């Protein structure tokens, strides 16, 4: 069987060898006579999987010892509410939180946060139609914010932070759903890092939360116990049944990433993949990428054809070549190539070759 090059934004492509290992272990994990899907989340078999995944993620991200790693559920969208419910209690009520609005997903975060606190939009990229990250010196931060929230990579718009903003002593909270493990990050500069796993980590179902310990224990009274970070941390993410199979696959991906040389090595590959695609886009007027060059995402590359009428023909031809899931998000149209860690550079080369051939035929 020949696997396609899958450019989906999420759930996204996974490393082939991880999928093969999971297939080999499906019915009998390490002689246990059980599938991971069937194991008790508190049994010794799954706990060994869980602790390995926990330590491997801590190693890969160089997470300091004063940070907790939580495996939660609900995706980044649930965390949009869970974050203010856990953090605004640090301040007298009604509390304020600062948000930087760079596109669709930060916008979704703002909408949910407004249910639990006053939101100050400290900076917005609205004037550029969300095609850039506002420069740090333009941000108008509150004097008493409970936290500052950013989305480090806008999956739909293809905008990425290539810097970590200095926000002083206020906790910096980052949705890293589509950027996590793709580049080196100094975790100590963040109060909270979170993200859905279904892009660079594994299948949908598990949400990663990395939270500094001093930020635990401030949940609002209305916060459900299963969403209270302190409760989840005290129970090693086992307060309720976690998404065990998703954690298992995530653990396999962590080990795969270690075999590639870790985050520094995969970042070099990601830089090369992104450069290959952007260099071609910049060389032609047949395709267009709208994002400011200094804010372009390495993970998600949106582009449009010079004639919208060619879109379906482009997608049909791509599928014939084994290049799938290239249709852009419905809110923006066009195309989008998501080139996460598991996308090999050969896949990006195949895409560029096809784009070049298509341009010759229809330009």
TrEMBL record:
Binds 1 pyridoxal phosphate per subunit. Its cofactor is pyridoxal 5'-phosphate. InterPro entries: Aminotrans_V_dom (IPR000192), Aminotrans_V_PyrdxlP_BS (IPR020578), Pser_aminoTfrase (IPR022278), PyrdxlP-dep_Trfase (IPR015424), PyrdxlP-dep_Trfase_major (IPR015421), PyrdxlP-dep_Trfase_small (IPR015422). Pathway: Cofactor biosynthesis; pyridoxine 5'-phosphate biosynthesis; pyridoxine 5'-phosphate from D-erythrose 4-phosphate: step 3/5; Amino-acid biosynthesis; L-serine biosynthesis; L-serine from 3-phospho-D-glycerate: step 2/3. L-glutamate binds at residue 42. The modification N6-(pyridoxal phosphate)lysine is found at residue 199. The keyword Nucleus does not apply. It is found in: Cytoplasm. Its EC number is 2.6.1.52. Keywords: Amino-acid biosynthesis, Aminotransferase, Cytoplasm, Pyridoxal phosphate, Pyridoxine biosynthesis, Serine biosynthesis, Transferase. Residues 5-351 form the Aminotransferase class V domain. Pfam families: Aminotran_5. It catalyses: O-phospho-L-serine + 2-oxoglutarate = 3-phosphooxypyruvate + L-glutamate; 4-(phosphooxy)-L-threonine + 2-oxoglutarate = (R)-3-hydroxy-2-oxo-4-phosphooxybutanoate + L-glutamate. Belongs to the class-V pyridoxal-phosphate-dependent aminotransferase family. SerC subfamily. Catalyzes the reversible conversion of 3-phosphohydroxypyruvate to phosphoserine and of 3-hydroxy-2-oxo-4-phosphonooxybutanoate to phosphohydroxythreonine. Homodimer. NCBIfam families: PRK05355.1, serC_1. This is Phosphoserine aminotransferase. The gene is serC.
